[in-house]
Amino acid sequence: MKNILILATVGGFLDKFERGDVQILQEMGYTVHYAANLKEPHYQYDEYELVLLGVHVHHIDIARSPFMVRYNMAAYKQLCDIIRENNILAIHCHTPVGGMMGRMMGRKFAGQGLKVVYTAHGFHFYKGAPLINNSLYYLAEWLMARYTDILVTINREDFKNALDLPLKNPKRVFEIPGVGVDLGRFAPMPKEERRVWRKKLGIPEEDTFFVSVGELNENKNQLVILKALTYLRESGKDISNVHYGICGDGFYEEKIQREIYMRNLEDNVKLYGYRRDVENVVGCADFSVFPTVREGLGMAGLEALAMGIPLLASRNRGTREYLHNGINGYFCNARDEKNWAAGLEKMMCLTAAQREKMSKNCRKSVLPFAGERTEAVMRKVYWELDMAVEEARAATRSSGREGEPAWWK
């Protein structure tokens, strides 16, 4: 039996992003274990659904912040126990702290043949990042690279940066188009269905509906749109027929609610919370707004484009992969509410013909990011991993310890 551990920080990560990987691994004969902080779900999920997928679920006290040392030290010990008790042969780690912890396991169990795949969902060092990011986070990745058997990146800038890291095998660096867009689920919504959903959400057919999807936090930057709407109104623009819906939850929810109230935007802005049917909200929108400051790729932006919804987004290394200014949407400066106000106005001033043409461009622009492409690359990644695992098992047999667990002391 071959056991692999998928490691992340928050409980719902696997359900949202890793179902396809689980299926590939199971087809290859692996038993999949999943470790995360199940008390911090972040993405809504049902643990029983993971069990039905055949996944063995483990709670660890891992924290999203690397500075919550007490919790992360506890998680380190818990991971060691999981690896020993379940004879884990490989780890596929995600998220910054999960990625760091996974490589630390790779270091601790290197002599016993543990293999590590790390998917970087956006390095914290990048062009234009603060100096501390481009020094401290780069150093951390440089140090951990030597315990990384395979590195997977999700954008071109990170892929190029990864090639300069001292990996175990420099040839085992891959680039995937994010987790892959499900073009069946995220497809243009029929007009009648669109009318039904707008009515459910209380959006008049003739009004303009902008939608954002993402966690409510500082980086996702939804507050800049509230400032932009305020600026438009104070500039004498009539925004009574403009609606802004936000899908997502997070620790910024109370702050955003307070800003909506203080800016008298209750009639314009609605928080829809975390939606498992987010495609129904996005599909009936006129435009998608993606103001995030830092983004590895940005599935929310891609999913909106897949539904034919033009995108207004911050210019960052993620959105630069798929947003083409004036073709399928427009770029804005992340922190500049006046620039966002101008962008919102530009969108609203598009003619019906311009919007129709842009909508068709949106769908075309997402084709390179289809789920099938991600799956094809991940099959190559896991094939490379399986080769490394088998090499380690062969070494175990030749050492005369056949039948003993890989973590023998």
On the 0 to 100 scale, the average pLDDT is: 93
Strand order of the largest sheet: 3-2-1-4-5-6-7
CATH topology of the largest domain: Rossmann fold
> How many domains, in number, for the residues?
2
The radius of gyration over CA amounts to 23 Å
- The CATH homologous superfamily of the largest domain is termed Glycogen Phosphorylase B
SSE order: EHEHEHEHEHEHEHEHEHEHEHEEHHH
Distance between the termini: 20 Å
Describe how the helices and strands are arranged.
Layout: E1 2-10, H1 13-27, E2 30-37, H2 47-52, E3 56-59, H3 69-85, E4 88-93, H4 96-108, E5 115-120, H5 131-145, E6 150-153, H6 156-162, E7 173-175, H7 191-201, E8 208-213, H8 223-234, E9 242-247, H9 253-262, E10 269-273, H10 278-283, E11 287-290, H11 299-306, E12 311-314, E13 329-332, H12 337-348, H13 352-366, H14 371-398
Parallel strand pairs: 1-2, 1-4, 2-3, 4-5, 5-6, 6-7, 8-9, 8-11, 9-10, 11-12, 12-13
Characterize this entry briefly.
The protein folds into 2 domains: 2-180 and 370-398, Glycogen Phosphorylase B (Rossmann fold); 191-368, Rossmann fold.
Features:
409 residues; alpha/beta; Rossmann fold; 2 domains; six-stranded parallel sheet; 14 helices
Describe this structure in words.
The chain has 409 residues and is an alpha/beta fold. It folds into two domains: 208 residues, Rossmann fold, CATH 3.40.50; 178 residues, Glycogen Phosphorylase B (Rossmann fold), CATH 3.40.50.2000. Helices cover 43% and strands 17% of the residues. It contains 14 helices and 13 strands. A seven-stranded parallel β-sheet has the order 3-2-1-4-5-6-7, with helices on both faces. A six-stranded parallel β-sheet has the order 10-9-8-11-12-13, sandwiched between helices. It is elongated. The two termini are 20 Å apart. The model has no long low-confidence stretch (mean pLDDT 93).
